[in-house]
Write a structure and sequence with these properties.
With about 850 residues, the protein is α+β, with helices and mostly antiparallel strands. The chain has 5 domains: about 1-300 and about 310-405, Glycosyltransferase (Alpha/alpha barrel), CATH 1.50.10; about 410-500, Immunoglobulin-like, CATH 2.60.40; about 505-590, no CATH class; about 595-725, no CATH class; about 745-830, Immunoglobulin-like. The chain is built from 18 helices and 37 strands. The strands form 6 sheets. Strands 3, 14, 15, 16, 17, 18, 19, 20, 21 and 22 form a 10-stranded antiparallel sheet that branches. Strands 23, 24, 25, 26, 27, 28, 29 and 30 form an 8-stranded antiparallel sheet that branches. A 7-stranded antiparallel sheet has the order 2-6-7-8-13-10-11. A hairpin with a 2-residue loop joins strand 4 and strand 5 (about 410). Helix 4 (about 75-90) runs parallel beside helix 6 (about 130-145) and helix 16 runs antiparallel to helix 17 (about 385-400). It is globular, with a radius of gyration of 28 Å.
Length: about 850
């Protein structure tokens, strides 16, 4: 009975498909109310964007059908989906009226052949035509779930059938149509599967399988690539948004067919994006260096490249679609680590992309010294794809916050409000949330129930909360970070749950980068708003914990403000840069510098003028650094050449170079360009300070002079510093002197099945003989396996765990490397 009722809710209200393969599913429409931090933001998106949209304007291109290459065809469906999901959240009759009017206005444009689109005759299947038809079908399917009018169903059938007269076996192949090497058109997979769910017509399931058989792209086969764990940037043409949209459809096809390869492909793809593309604030995509350097909308190994991108990064459509893909994976797996990704996106990249009153959105989003800017109109239509898409993710938040399972409610996101969850057809529980989260880590949950009842309530314990306190009626329970605390008991009316999360601020290191750090507090990433001025951010802590004080905001519109020990101020990323102009630039990544006691400053400059600057020095050392403290222009620090002389010979040419960042454009502006002996090429940093460039001479040598040949972007204030080989180790050069994180442990893939590889780096010189112990425990604390217990030399090592004989679940990897300890969570999904 309960399963059947759950199926009805998911399908009839969401039209998202449902199968026994799903671990979690949404609660019924109108059953959750969010107040606190998130509620007003969702309301502003609804009231100031969705209710203010001219919906007749969205239908007009379907009436005139004049497009030949643009994407006006997507706007109606995108916006209507947001209206529909918002209505399912708050049951607002104004939204229902908007839906009714917009849907039947659109249906009036359907041609005799069944076409609902914006493209001229003779241009069908070109440009974004099929992509637009996808959004039409998705919006009509969700509307039909709300208002099951046969007229709407017949319109969808005619639209789909007409497409199948143009595309398919013995016709034009789907991957040969449209934009982004066929991925845009192939994304119609999702609504075709859902239409099969609605009608039971085999032809729609056959067409869905046909799309998969064609590989999703004319540039290979993205489904096979995912099965083979190919990096996302190397699949198709790397276009992020469209690629994820195709995999959303594959998720729905898995629910219908149960084909395990479809599930595996989706999870592999999801894990690869997590490991290689998602940036610190939960957004992704950037321009270059691998795919399409003209637009910031492609997979480009973003987890690494994020520190080098001042502009054209983190398209809002990518954030929205990433959240939707995560939601699909969450429903499939019930894995709480997926919620970590959604939470990171919600509190940072998503809310940061929405103007404070919810009326508009950005297209790209900054991390490194740029300002937020509103998206401009596209296709001569006065609307941007990201403006149309952003409210969809806002409306999704309530349905992630509290979900249901076959044995009880699941709490994923913490926010003041209420949620009513059905236990079966005659039993329900009301959860009342009291909290000032995310500013405050304390959460109270009151259980309201008609009579005592036994069920399991799952509470997500965030991975970042290393020391969580959980009590029920005053009794302390276990709360392991990165897992669900599953509380199975007889619940009584008025039972009180108390959670206290660990809100200590922490340092986050960029993937594959030892020279840049970010600061997080709870789910919030902290940012430097350029309006603060004053002391620069200095990160020279003795541990990953950052001491800071939360203070009343000194700038308008700031949600959370903090002061570091040296007096510099930070605020939460989503409200940083909230003037949306050049008066408030946003910086998240801060360069890490070695403790100055290790460096000998041989020249300190406060009034640099650019050009060629020569300094006579008399010092000995292996490492030479230019530490840029103040830029002389609005650009970064740029050097044609960083010349280091010994006995009149430039010994820097061709030597290894490390930089804090490099600016990405069509030219190669990486660090080695400053030591290539070519005065026409140069290194340039991103547009913030401080920055550095460091040359490794290989051994201690005598240095008699240093020459800086500046590009137009010169340094006004900087230091020239030298450090001896005997004064440091590889650990120091990776920031361990100031931030004790010399041990790097990476796990891949995660989740995994059945093997996982744990890679780690032991710092030090080649003769280091470090003691390493790695153990795997289950969540009950029982030792499962000792993976490593011995001594290894410095450098990179790896160990593999084959968990073929262990059940699915979350496991804890505890490691000790030369006295330095850490913990990682491993998720085994079979």
């Amino acid at each position: 009975m309960f399963y059947n009722m759950a199926k009805i809710f998911v399908f009839l209200y969401f039209c998202l498909g449902f199968a026994m393969q799903d671990s979690l599913f949404p609660i019924k429409p109108g059953a959750i109310t969010l107040n606190g931090f998130l509620g007003p933001k969702i309301d502003s998106s609804i009231n100031n964007r969705l209710k203010k949209q001219d919906y007749t304007h969205l239908v007009d291109p379907f009436r005139t059908r004049q497009e030949t290459s643009g994407w006006q065809c997507e706007f109606w469906g995108k916006v209507l989906r947001s209206v529909q999901l918002s209505y399912l959240y708050n049951q607002d009759t104004v939204l229902k009226s908007i839906m009714d009017s917009a849907v039947y206005d659109l249906l009036s444009t359907q041609t005799a052949e069944g076409y609902i689109g914006t493209y001229m005759d003779g241009y069908h299947l070109q440009g974004w035509d099929v992509w637009g038809r996808k959004y039409v079908l998705l919006a009509l399917e969700r509307y039909y779930a709300i208002n099951p009018d046969s007229t709407v169903l017949q319109a969808m059938i005619r639209e789909a059938d007409f497409l199948m007269t143009e595309v398919g076996p013995d016709k034009t192949n789907i991957e040969q149509t449209g934009q982004q090497v066929g991925m845009a058109s192939s994304s119609i997979l999702e609504p075709m599967v859902l239409l099969y769910n609605l009608t039971g017509f085999q032809r729609y399931l056959d067409f869905s399988e046909y799309i998969v058989s064609r590989g999703g792209t004319s540039a290979g086969n993205i489904f096979e690539d995912a099965l083979n764990n190919v990096n996302a940037k190397d699949m198709g043409n790397g276009k992020a948004y469209e690629m994820m949209s195709v995999f959303e459809g594959l998720t729905e096809l898995y629910r219908v067919t149960g084909n395990p390869e479809y599930r595996e492909a989706v999870l592999n793809f999801y894990n690869n994006i997590c490991n290689t593309e998602i940036m610190v604030v939960g957004g992704s995509s950037c321009e270059g260096p691998y795919n399409n350097s003209g637009y910031g909308e492609y997979w480009n190994n973003g987890a690494v490249e994020q520190v080098n991108r001042p502009t054209k990064m983190m398209e809002t459509c990518v954030t929205v679609t990433w959240m939707k893909l995560c939601y699909q994976v969450l429903r499939l797996t019930g894995d709480p680590t997926v919620v970590e990704e959604i939470e990171k996106s919600v509190y940072n990249s998503l809310l940061g992309a929405m103007v404070p009153d919810g009326s508009w959105w950005s297209h790209y989003n900054p991390l490194n010294g740029e300002y937020r800017s509103p998206a401009s109109g596209q296709c001569s239509f006065g609307l941007d794809c990201c403006v149309a898409n952003g409210p969809m993710a806002m409306a999704l938040i309530p349905f992630v916050a509290v979900m249901n399972s076959l044995d009880g409610p699941v709490v994923n996101l913490y926010n003041a409000g209420t949620a009513k969850v059905l236990l079966d057809s005659s039993r329900e529980v009301l959860l009342q949330f009291q909290t000032d989260y995310p500013a405050d880590g304390r959460v109270g949950i009151n259980v309201q129930i008609a009579e005592p009842d036994q069920f399991t309530l799952r509470l997500r314990i965030p991975a970042w909360s290393k020391q969580t306190v959980l009590t029920v009626q005053g009794d302390t329970l276990s709360a392991v970070s990165g897992t669900y605390a599953a509380i199975s008991r007889v619940w009584n009316n008025g039972d009180q749950i108390e959670l206290s999360f660990d809100m200590r601020a922490r340092l986050i290191r960029a993937s594959g980068d030892s020279n840049n750090l970010a600061i997080t507090r709870g789910p919030l990433v902290l940012s430097r708003d350029s309006r603060y001025g004053g002391a620069p951010v200095e990160l020279n802590q003795e541990s990953d914990i950052v001491p800071l004080d939360i203070v009343p905001p000194s700038l308008p519109g700031i949600y959370l403000e903090a002061i570091l020990p040296n007096g510099s101020r930070l605020c939460d990323y989503q409200s940083s840069g909230n003037t949306w102009n050049t008066s408030s630039n946003v910086t998240v990544w801060f360069p890490v510098f070695l403790n100055d006691t290790l460096w000998q400053t041989v020249q300190s400059v406060t009034d640099g003028t650019g050009g060629t600057e020569r300094f006579d020095v008399s010092a000995e050392g292996r490492f030479v650094r230019m530490l840029g403290l103040q830029r002389g222009t609005q650009w970064g620090f740029g050097l044609y050449e960083f010349e280091i002389y010994s006995g009149g010979v430039n010994i820097a040419t061709g030597k290894p170079v490390t930089v804090s960042s490099y600016y990405v454009e069509s030219r190669d502006l990486r660090g080695p360009r400053a030591v290539d002996g070519d005065h026409t090429t140069f290194w340039s940093s991103i547009f913030t300070e401080p920055q550095f460039i460091r040359v490794d001479l290989g051994e201690d040598v005598y240095i008699d002079s240093i020459v800086l040949v500046w590009e137009a972007a010169y340094g006004k204030a900087y230091k020239l510093q030298i450090m001896k080989d005997t004064a440091t180790t590889a650990a120091d050069l990776n920031g361990a002197t100031t931030v004790h994180r010399p041990v790097e442990v990476d796990i891949c893939p995660n989740p995994f099945n059945p093997q996982i590889e744990i890679s780690y780096r032991v710092p030090g010189n080649n003769t280091t003989n470090a003691r390493v112990r790695m153990e795997v425990f289950n969540t009950n604390g029982t030792l499962v396996r000792i993976l490593m217990d011995g001594r290894v030399s410095s450098g990179c090592h790896s160990v593999r765990w084959d968990a073929a004989h262990w059940p699915s679940g979350v496991y804890v990897l505890k490691y000790t490397i030369e006295g330095m300890k850490g913990v990682k969570l491993l998720t085994l999904l079979k």
